[in-house]
Design brief:
The chain is an alpha+beta fold. The protein is built from 15 helices and 17 strands. It has helices spanning 12-20, 26-44, 52-69, 111-118, 161-168, 185-191, 229-239, 267-282, 296-313, 322-337, 341-350, 354-375, 409-414, 418-421, 452-462, and strands at residues 47-50, 80-84, 122-127, 139-140, 144-145, 147-148, 151-155, 175-179, 194-197, 221-226, 253-256, 286-289, 380-384, 400-402, 405-407, 427-434, 440-446. α9 (296-313) crosses α11 (341-350).
Length: 467
């Protein structure tokens, strides 16, 4: 007996098929999602701005177009979606989690939103982010705390936390995230969805923010979040002119590393990753534990210096120099993260000279080339996302326990995320199972630089359908 799925339970691929063939009307789909959001969102507070009337009007127009011309508007015809409150969208306030920006009127959409809407997708609302999108938990000074659908006492991750919570609760069929320090990858891990940090520059990011100059141009990557790799491919095709990879391999060479810089993973996470690796071996793939021959502590430091310097470039003029910069460092950095090692790295970048910054960029380029050489030995490289499952809601900077010892906040959460952001390669977060408490665990599959399609194709051939 086949159980009929509710519209919001359909995958993006299924939804597109039914909408582009006329089996479903866009208005019915939009109304179903709005009703589901109104039912479920109060539990977790992930969607912070919902424009139901606007969405219904656009859905009616999509239906009228389809009925008149007997063809869809585009590949995402009539598909409703939500998006992170960091992407400029016309008719929406875009705050980046910063209260003063919340009052600015947005007159145009960024390239990513424009591409999605031109493909026929309909923006329903925006999802929550932490202050300035700079945190691994999602607590906004404007909209409050977003909770993890799997455990309300735990984080949904950050900064794309509202995005993945919306996705996990099926309040949106896909989302778009941005990633500097794991803001796509860590939330995907926390909430059991798929997230792609594309190769650097693959998706346009320089116009995404709310009336800000280009920010973090050497670190940021914008990419899709979804409940399957097939759905990721559909979205990437729209926002980045994705071309499907046609090659195939029966035997994949997989390197894996579960610890570096003295930081590993909790025992239960390790068991789930070991199970994943054993499954790959049983399928006949070559699986090899490797020690990465790159100084990852140094990579973490260089990442932080670049982050701090590029942060200073987008500050208001009064905060870029002298006392203003010292005040910003104290308030934004030290008050929030206290004595966490991240504060020292970030501070070094904030006060760095242009020459220091250029030296950091040059060293980053050298590390990138070292990573490219390392990756030549493997089709993909597997690593943890974080040292454990989603952490409980807590004050940023508070140390965490790992296997009986205290680990700094940024090492526990950022060890496997920050240094790898420096290498500019595609990274796919894949859910592999849940702990005994029901918390999702994911891994990172790293691919070759600029070969995003190949990474998605290879990983899709490796894994079983899990969601």
């Amino acid at each position: 007996m086949t159980i009929k799925k509710e519209i919001y339970q359909l995958s993006l691929k299924e939804l597109c098929e039914k909408l582009t063939t006329g089996d479903l009307s866009s208005l019915d789909v939009v109304n179903c999602y709005i009703a589901h959001i109104e039912r479920e969102n109060p539990k977790i507070n992930s969607i912070v701005s919902l424009k139901a009337s606007r969405a219904r009007l656009l859905a009616q127009q999509a239906d009228e177009y389809f009925n008149k011309f007997k063809k869809p508007l585009g590949p995402l015809h009539g598909v409703p979606f939500t998006i992170k409150d960091a992407f400029r969208a016309k008719d929406f306030k875009t705050s980046y989690g910063v209260p003063p920006l919340h009052y600015l009127k947005t007159r145009s959409s960024c390239d990513v939103v424009e591409r999605l809407e031109k493909s026929g997708a309909i923006l329903l609302g925006q999802t929550n982010v932490p202050f300035s999108c700079f945190e691994w938990q999602t607590r906004s000074p404007i909209y409050g705390l977003t909770k993890n659908p799997y455990d309300m006492e735990r984080t949904c991750g950050g900064s794309s936390g509202g995005s993945v919570a919306s996705l996990a609760m099926r309040m949106s069929p896909f989302e778009i995230g941005s990633d500097i320090a794991g803001s796509i990858r860590y939330p995907a891990h926390c909430c059991g969805v798929y997230g792609l940090r594309p190769s650097h520059g693959r998706v346009r990011s320089d116009d995404m923010g709310p009336s800000l100059r280009s920010s973090f141009k050497n670190l940021i990557s914008v990419g899709p979040l979804a409940r399957s790799i097939e759905d990721l491919e559909l979205v990437l095709n729209v926002i980045a002119d994705f071309e499907k990879f046609n090659g195939s391999k029966k035997k994949i060479k997989i390197g894996y590393t579960l610890e570096w810089s003295g930081i590993g993973v909790e025992p239960e996470s390790a068991k789930l990753i070991e199970k994943e690796l054993n499954n790959l071996k049983e399928k006949g793939h070559e699986v090899q534990e490797v020690e990465i021959n790159i100084d990852m502590k140094r990579a973490y430091w260089i990442w932080g210096v670049i982050l701090g310097f590029e942060c200073r470039l987008i500050l208001p003029l009064l905060l870029r120099f002298g006392f203003g910069l010292s005040f910003f460092n104290w308030w934004f950095n030290k008050v929030r993260f206290h004595s966490d090692p991240l504060t020292k790295i970030f501070e070094t970048g904030l006060f760095a000279s242009k020459l220091d910054y250029e030296k950091a960029l040059a060293e980053a380029s050298e590390l990138r080339q070292e990573f490219d050489q390392f990756m030549k030995k493997y089709d993909v490289w597997l690593t943890p996302v974080s040292s454990g499952p989603a952490i409980k809601h807590q004050k940023p900077g508070k140390s965490l326990e790992l296997s009986g010892r205290n680990i700094s906040y940024s090492d526990y959460l950022g060890n496997f995320l920050c240094p790898t952001a420096l290498f500019h390669h595609p990274i796919l977060t894949v859910p592999i199972g849940r702990t005994h408490a029901g918390l999702p665990i994911g891994v990172q599959y790293h691919g070759h630089r600029s070969k995003d399609e190949e990474l998605l194709s290879v990983v899709k051939s490796l894994i079983l359908k899990r969601v």
